[in-house]
Amino acid sequence: MTPATASLPRVAILGGGPIGLEAALAAHEAGADFTVFEAADAVGGHVRRWSHVRTFTPWSMTVSPRVRAALPAAPDGEALPTGGDIVRELLEPLAATPALAGRVRTGTRVLAVAREGMLKHEAIGQPARAARPFRLLVRGPDGSEAIEHADAVIDATGTYSNPNRMGDGGIDAVNERALNHRIDRYLPDLEADADAWAGRTILLTGAAHSAQTAARALAGFAAQAPGTRVVWAVRSPQPDWGAVAGDPLRERAALNATAAQLAGGASDAVEVLPGRVTEALAERDGRVVVTLRNGSAEEVEVDRVLALNGGVGDHQLYRQLQVHECYATAGPMKLAATLLGETGGDCLAVGSAGAQTLVNPEPGFFILGAKSYGRNSQFLLRTGWQQVDDVFTTLI
Ligand SMILES: Cc1cc2nc3c(=O)[nH]c(=O)nc-3n(C[C@H](O)[C@H](O)[C@H](O)COP(=O)(O)OP(=O)(O)OC[C@H]3O[C@@H](n4cnc5c(N)ncnc54)[C@H](O)[C@@H]3O)c2cc1C
Known about the structure:
With 396 residues, the protein is α/β, with parallel strands linked by helices. The protein has two domains: 10-161 and 311-395, FAD/NAD(P)-binding domain; 168-307, 3-Layer(bba) Sandwich (FAD/NAD(P)-binding domain), CATH 3.50.50.60. The chain is 24% helix and 21% strand. It is built from nine helices and 16 strands. The strands form four sheets. A five-stranded parallel sheet has the order 3-2-1-7-16, with helices on one face. The chain has a five-stranded parallel sheet with strand order 8-15-9-10-11, with helices on one face. A three-stranded antiparallel sheet has the order 4-5-6, with no helix packed on it. Strand 12 and strand 13 form a beta hairpin. The site of flavin-adenine dinucleotide has 36 residues, from helix 1, helix 2, strand 4 and helix 9.
């Protein structure tokens, strides 16, 4: 990034996902000097990892007004894109627009962000911190490290790379670390990797949309691949599957309904065990023995473990900044407090929480996108568009 001038704030955007690129477009419109740092080799690093998954919001809720102006030919309407469609039709073309070309540094991971010349505990909550630029330690595609400077930082690094642990209370189960190589923590592409899943016994954990998506896919897969069996351990004794009354998102409603049907015994291949937490894992004769607990302990012996327990953003990144995190959700405090106050848990009901909820004690540092929701998995893209508007209209 070039040295700051009075009229051109330097904005560092961490993450080239849907919201990072939305912020990049807004930065271009605002006349800022901006750079997007994307850890993956290409934009949409996280979305590419679930490219085989169909979203539950249609194109009309996937393309923001700002992106539509930049890409008038982008798809619209009520069809549901897959993650791969979003990358191909939206993120890649967006990164190639004149507005963003040359501004996105792929293969470049931001390792840490700090304030130049100031430690975390200095000038506490004071605007004086804003007089010092941000200092970013980045690692480029060739592995070399360098320092970059910025006047404002948008952290849109998402949550997908930081899956939650399997064990009771959210910590690792006994031996979970040692057997990490036996645990799949991302939604599998069953079609592409059929041999790895067919005829296997699989322990699935988690109850939110990703786990529901996997359970539904595995139930369908088992019908074609006899011998495939799923033991689905769910923490809640009476899971409600996050169902929303009168849900206008048909695909989400269908997903919730399928989960409830599976819990009701709809598939011989899927056994749902509610009220179970994971206590320990062990290897025996090439298989994984998982101890589940529901009052008393029970063992299940499986070939594969699929742990889809959600994720939370990497807060180590801004450890040296004065970021006020919510003690309950790990999201930025003001936004988290607003979200905790929302009723019903329906992400469609959660609009913009207002620009001030995005403000941190650290001036000029903003957490946007999926990461801004902390442990709350209800984030929707359209909320992120509003966050970007809020930041660029009132805060930068
Ligand atoms: C399976 C799935 C289905 C979903 N379906 C929907 C849906 O139907 N509708 C909807 O509105 N939302 C949906 N979401 C939720 C949400 O909209 C997506 O997660 C969306 O991708 C969030 O965009 P983002 O830009 O905030 O984060 P991400 O897409 O996670 O992007 C973050 C980017 O930051 C990069 N990165 C991470 N760490 C670093 C670092 N240190 N330095 C540099 N770069 C870094 C990553 O590689 C990634 O490209 C879904 C999420 C998942 C996981």
